[in-house]
Design goal:
Blueprint (H helix, E strand, L loop, with lengths): L1 H16 L1 H37 L21 H14 L9 E7 L3 E12 L2 E13 L2 E8 L24 H18 L8 H12 L24 E3 L2 E6 L5
Antiparallel strand pairs: 1-2, 2-3, 3-4, 5-6
Helix pairs in contact: 1-2, 3-5
Main location: nucleus
Family: Belongs to the Mediator complex subunit 27 family.
Pfam families: Med27 (PF11571)
Amino acid sequence: MTVQMERLSRFLHDGQIDPHTNELYDKALEASTWMETNNQLLQMYAEFLRTVVGNRRRSIMTDRPISYSNYGLSSSPQNIFEQTLTVVLKDPNIKKIGLVGRYLEKSTLSALVEFKFGQVIDKQYVCLLKMLMVVNSGLPEFVQMIAPHEEWSYLDIGSAQVDIHKESRYLVYRKMSVQANIHLMQTIMPCIDIRNAHTLSYVLNLFAKFSGVFDIKCRVCKRIMKDYLPPLMFDLRCPKNALHESCR
């Protein structure tokens, strides 16, 4: 290290005497600065990519290999669900819960469907609740609820893959999602018939009841709000028996 410092010191002194050596010294200094800058930039890129790519969750909507089955494309469970949903959304009775549905993502075996529950007030549609439903092989497997003014998040800027794990920034809607998935797993999935439009319509009617939790009183404390939350624990078939979490 000492020998290198002596050489650099001699190089600097020679540059102060000889103009050609001075020019060579300036070029060497510029090249050294350029290499150091590039090295720091590459380290910053590596840290950035490690943070973004390493922690990024994969979307459930990634393409899956189609397993062998006797189903044709027109008779697969996913296609049957889509046909049934089309019938449900065209049903005039569905307007009673102000249901509006659209596909955010769609593939052969799965789909992401956005449902809006609302009301028509003065001939204007007012959304009260947004729900995202993950459907795999014709069966709803997961739902996520957010506030009516919130938007869904995407995995990357400009990407069409929705980040289904991104929760609402409001606690009440996060707790709604938890309760909705409990009902989905315990009571809805075991008995749902994707071929029956009336069954699917009934399921969506059940989820629509979450949009009215701010009008329901707790059967114990007789209040709507407690700890800044409405009663979220209830039987979907009878929301009037709702309870606050702290009133159980």
